[in-house]
Every structure is written in structure tokens, then in C-alpha cells.
Amino acid sequence: MDIVYLIVIGLLAGIIAKALTPGTAKEPKGCLMTMALGIAGSLLVGFIVRTFLGGGAGGFVPTLVGATIGAILLILLMRKFWK
Question: What angle do CA 16, 20, 21 make, to 5 degrees?
């Protein structure tokens, strides 16, 4: 159930992250890329929190903030290597 929760949060986080970092015309865009980056960011931060802090994020808002930060980091990383 936790993974499903992180995926749903990731969808929201992807939308927020893409709104905060809109990007250029040269990088891939679209709903699927936004969802994929959000979900990946959410799962990444969820894994880091559970591994290094030993527990959950503590609720909806902290999870959403962490997932958004993870998605933004993935967007910036994708931009660095996308050419």
C-alpha cells in the first residue's frame, strides 16, 4: 500500500515540479514525462527517507514536499544530460 501511496503522491509532485521548473523547448515534455519524473522522485525520496531516517515521511504534506523536491532534482538531472 505504501508504494501505491507514493505513486499517487508522485503524480501530484510531478505536476508541481514541472510548474516550478517549466524548461525549454528542446527537452521532452508532456503528461507522461511529468508523471514519470514525479513518480520516480517520490519513490526516490521515499526510499531515502526509509533507509536513512528509518521511518515514513510523517503525513501527506511532508511526503508531497519531499516528492516534489525529488522530482525537481530529477528534472534538473535530466536537463543536464539531455542534449
Answer: 115
Three-state SS at 43: helix
- HEC readout, 54-67: CCCCCCHHHHHHHH
Q: CB of 40 within 8 A of CB of 18?
A: no
Residue 22: helix, strand or coil by DSSP? coil
Nearest CA-CA partner of 9 in 33, 31, 41: 41
SS3 29: coil
Q: What is the pLDDT of residue 51?
A: 78
- Rounded to two decimals, what is the model's pTM? 0.77
